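ok so I'm stuck.
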Amino acid sequence: MRSILALGILVLTLNACTSTPTKNSIADSVNTPTAAEDTSGAIDYFALQSHLRMGRERESLGFSEKSFNTCEAGYGYSRSQNCHHHHFVVIHFRLLCRDSEGTISNILTDEDLRPLDRRSVKWSLKGTTGVAQTDGQGYGQIVTAVAASQRSQRIRLALGNEFLYMRANEIQKVITPAPWCDQY
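replied:
not stuck anymore, here's the structure
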């Protein structure tokens, strides 16, 4: 009985810790990072991210993925029904724009670039879609869980009428042309 009570307290404590963003969490540095649309609304992607130890600083750009069993995961997945393996995907990116278009002959410096700050960026990744919010420095995070690996899939990022495609495992710092600078 004591072990069940201790386990219950531990679960409540962990849930409280994962539900509240900490100062160093990506949830704090990105205003409203979003996961893929979940039709049931029951999957806690950010608690699952913490459970799978896939949280990292916003400056740690790029793609990461981990396979997990839905029945072992919890956080909104049933512990006994429809058990299968899913891939948890976390993509950190940074969007910067330059004021020029076309080919340039000089090397871009930080003064030539400005972050696409506080923008809602629509994304799609092999049938999964969502919206990621960039922070004040242009950093954003995409979090989703899908049936198949997304490592070699193309991701589409869109801001207004402007969009780009990249391989999911190659996205990091993205420098966009001038039309992206003015999209809200």
